[in-house]
Design goal:
Helices cover 23% and strands 35% of the residues. It is built from 8 helices and 20 strands. The strands form 4 sheets. A 6-stranded mixed beta sheet has the order 6-7-8-3-9-10, sandwiched between helices. Strands 13-12-11-14-20 form a 5-stranded antiparallel beta sheet.
């Protein structure tokens, strides 16, 4: 069932508008691969090219060794799950799940066996005789997923499948989708604009912007070592701050306008005085203490407000240069730091990321 997808130099145009200029990637057999990016970045366009719903103006698309550029969508052996479920309102759950199997003119007993199997797998067998209007959004999406999987496709394509569900159902359904995909081992291409959702379900993620892949990697790699400032700001929250590089003999690091100096052992291709952008995740800013300390090396900031979220407390702190930084720290039994309090901040040098001044390139190995 698992198959490799290879895309070489894909080109998509709408008249004079180039949606995807030149895109290449390889999706491994059985991989859960996510296309992630803002609206209009080309992720759904690329998915529809894989499905055969969009024309291909250039490049080559392969399933395994099979070129599929001119292959009819019905002959690509794909399962598709859409944002709006796209299940038939006049058919029962059982008939919806069996629809693709009936189109393939399989024997009745085989249709029943496979329909029962996938309704059981998706935990919707008890609703077999209900019409979709009698189901919740989550149940309808389970029906759509069961229908897509029942034909045992080589590739499963999912376009924003959870965006119409409420927050609690989204979390529940993404767990269901990941567990089912793991169990079946089917090659899956998933489109979303929700970075948390992408990180929860994916083996690897391709972050896209304006039809160009910015970086491909595991959720951990993208979060901890983004290739550029776009990826850093799109994957999770970050504080993007300005600094300069300092080099003294074999030592080097960054220094902020306020005088806070941080040694970094993983900087590459930098020169003394070079202007840089520094990406600091909220959990990588450390509250060192309260009040001024003229003998210490730190960033100084004033707490603007705090938000208690149980496990963590979030602080918004205005630094001396006017930049408002977000800090996340584990909630303590002690009192929350009051608004207006001056605090001292440090950074986890091994975790922060440094980019060129235009944000296009990482300077951390």
């Amino acid at each position: 069932m698992s198959i490799k997808i290879t895309i070489n130099h894909a080109l998509k145009k709408y008249g004079d508008f180039v949606a995807i200029p030149d895109l290449s990637l390889e999706i491994k057999p059985g991989e859960f691969f996510t296309l992630l990016g803002p609206s209009g970045c080309g992720k759904t366009t690329l998915l529809r090219m894989i499905a055969g719903f969009n024309s291909i103006e250039g490049g080559e698309f392969y399933f395994g060794d099979r070129l599929i550029n001119d292959l009819d969508p019905s002959k690509r052996n794909i399962g598709m799950v859409f944002q709006n479920y796209a299940i038939f309102p006049h058919l029962t759950v059982r008939k919806n799940v069996a629809f693709g199997l009936q189109n393939r003119k399989l024997p009745k007993e085989e249709i029943k066996e496979k329909t029962d199997k996938f309704m059981e797998l998706m935990k919707i067998k008890e609703y077999a005789d209900r019409l979709p209007e009698k189901l919740s959004g989550g149940q309808q999406q389970r029906v759509a997923l069961a229908r897509a999987l029942a034909i045992e496709p080589e590739v499963l394509l999912m376009d924003e499948p959870l965006s119409n569900l409420d927050a609690k159902l989204r979390v529940e359904m993404r767990t269901v989708i990941k567990e089912i995909q793991n169990r079946l081992g089917i090659t899956t291409v998933y489109v979303t604009h929700d970075q948390e959702e992408a990180m929860a379900v994916s083996d690897r993620i391709a972050v896209m912007n304006q039809g160009v892949i910015q970086q491909i990697g595991s959720p951990k790699a993208l979060y901890q070592r983004p290739a550029n400032s776009f990826v850093a700001t799109f994957i999770g929250r970050t504080n993007m701050m300005k600094a300069k590089v300092w080099v003294e003999g074999n030592r080097k690091g960054i220094i902020f306008d306020e005088g806070y100096k941080l040694e970094m052992k993983n900087l590459v291709n930098v020169s003394d005085g070079q202007e840089v952008k520094v990406s600091v995740r909220p959990e990588e800013l450390v509250i060192e203490g309260v009040g001024e300390d003229k003998n210490a090396n730190y960033l100084s900031g004033k707490v603007q407000y705090s938000t208690f979220l149980g496990l963590n407390t979030h602080y918004i702190v205005e630094l001396e240069d006017g930049y408002r930084a977000e800090i996340i720290q584990e909630s303590l039994i002690d009192d929350i730091i009051e608004n207006g309090t001056v605090i001292r901040l440090g950074m986890k040098a091994e975790k922060i990321n440094v980019f060129t001044s235009d944000g296009s390139e990482s300077l951390v190995k």
